[in-house]
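seq as requested:
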Amino acid sequence: MRKYSSNATRMLFIVLLVGALSFLFTACGKSIPSIDPQLLDSKASVLVVTSSTLAPDAQQQLQTALQEWQSSRLTAYEWMQLSPAQGLTEEQQAELQQRAYDYVVVAGRELIVSLLPYAEQLTDSRWIMLDDRIMRESLPVQGSHIVVHTIVEARLHQEWDEWVRQQLVTDRAIEWVTTQAYPIPSEWAPAEEAEYMTLTDAPGWQQQLQYQLQAHRSSWIVVFAPLDAQQLQRLKAMQVPIANISATAVELQWPAVLESVSRLLAERSWQGGLKPYTEREFKLNKFL
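struct tokens:
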């Protein structure tokens, strides 16, 4: 029997090992799928900016949505939580200017007002503003790269219309309290019934309202314009039931809102400006 030297044996082992590894790497290389270029092109970077006081359940729903976008669309995201009172720090301002996000999603009226000047300057990103209040004053939006999802004031009128008309048909007198900037809808208080309206930005409004309450034997004081705490306290002291239309609160329905944003990211469709929420995306809470 022929015997091999230890050196020859070692060399034979190395040759066999290299051959096996070459075969293995070749086989594995054939089984690795190539990345679809369309999928690679569809990758988007998203910055989400919310208030540090965002409700815990909304935070959880947002976190779930972001993770789903990341896993299903290869979306890279960052989440920034800000104090509405403090706004952006200098470091955060620099980050916004240096990082080229495809989309920036901003939630909450206070943050929208704070970040709108930056959004107007940073035109390389598309800005999605999610308002959480009723749009009763104009919010100038400059630039087709910004869209503001909001609730128009006509929807506020629609929400209260049935209740107001019910008071009127049952002869329950209403004293309207507002300011010059917020005129009462004519279908609720025609011009010929001006004696039922009180403007809190006019001198002597309290005495005038007290007189009208007694003269009309009013059943309600209805507040239509935003008032400060001191003015509201004075109204409460008159001991007449108050319906505060201006305090109507918006409750965003986050699953539906995030579904809408998700669809926008997926379809890459875009139209700037003001965009009313659908009925699925919000709920209005009245205070009587």
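Residues 38-152+250-282 form a domain with the Rossmann fold fold (CATH 3.40.50.2300).
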